[in-house]
Description:
The protein has helices at residues 5-14, 28-36, 56-59, 62-74, 100-105, 116-125, 139-151, 167-175, 188-194, 201-204, 217-232, 252-261, 291-294, 315-319, 351-357; strands spanning 21-27, 47-54, 78-82, 109-113, 131-137, 157-163, 183-187, 210-213, 238-240, 262-269, 273-282. The chain is α/β, with parallel strands linked by helices. The chain folds into 3 domains: 5-54 and 167-240, Rossmann fold (3-Layer(aba) Sandwich); 58-165 and 251-300, Rossmann fold (3-Layer(aba) Sandwich); 315-357, no CATH class. It has a 5-stranded parallel beta sheet. Strands 4-3-5-6 form a 4-stranded parallel beta sheet, sandwiched between helices. The protein has a two-stranded antiparallel ribbon with strand order 10-11. Helix 1 packs parallel to helix 11.
Amino acid sequence: MERDGRDWLAHIHSLPLTGRVRIMNVCGGHERTIAMAGLRGLLPEQVELIPGPGCPVCVCPEEDIYAAIRLALDHGVTLAAFGDMLRVPVNVGPGEPRSLEQARAAGGDVRPIASPQEAVAIAKAEPMRQVVFFAVGFETTMAPIAAMLAQGIPDNQSLLLSGRLTWPAVALLLDSDVPTFDALVAPGHVATITGPEEWSFVATKHGLPVAVAGFTPPQVLRAISAVLRQVTERQAFLENCYPEVVRPQGNQAAQRLLATQYSVIDAPWRGLGVIPRSGYALVEHLRRHDARHRFPMVFQDERHRRGAMPAGCDCAQVVLGKIPPTACRLYGQPCTPRHPVGPCMVSDEGACRIWWSIGQR
């Protein structure tokens, strides 16, 4: 029978930990579970949980959001985007719209959607109008978008694709001079698509414990228990703690969709720079549906602060796990969910938004 959270906590507290252990939880969904359930306060004091780069909204390139704003305002297109992208701010001068929400208020046709098929429905309903789907997300989001492309989309629909792979950002952290964590809790939803094996490099190359986790408090505690046990036993291997959903080799049908609709490219992450082979781009036969080729004039603009966070914003340091959200110079004043300055305060998967929502001031 599956253990409940109290059993996993008892097991964790029974482990002979001798020093501080920093565990990074990659996924914003995991951070939300940890924060909402108050797990940090229930763990041994030497265990530190560090939120990582698992929020696609937080790392979406600033220049892509700016391009989406200009498409909606200057080129008469209908811009469809997932709802949490509408409030992400960009770096612009005073009086200019700094988010898709503000572009909408200024007269742009910006429509929040919840699924890729909604973008297709909009394009079919208005065949004489250009519709751009601003597609942002990690592997779990990119797979259904790939399915949408494989089924075919209307001629008047194009994609501004800002899809990213999750593991290269973690590899970047581990390849740095001073890694910020000693063990990793890997994202269960991503592993459902790619397979848990994708995260084995954390153990085999870097010698750190790693466990794939589900999203309920007991499931997260199970993974934390697994990596802490490895620490105490001086072992490092990949453990799948979400076997009811994550299967060996992952979802191969979804993997085929990703491989046939996208190519993998070097890609910019906001505040982090370009990470090799970390982004998705449409394959050549879908070029005519690529907004970067359909509206090249929008992407020729040289942004003064391309890729940068707003002045004073430490979101990049939060995403890299180098500081907690409350250490950001703008956290809470002036940056709040109602008036976000940086992207980490916007999305439900952003660490700053999550910490604020539980009253962490």
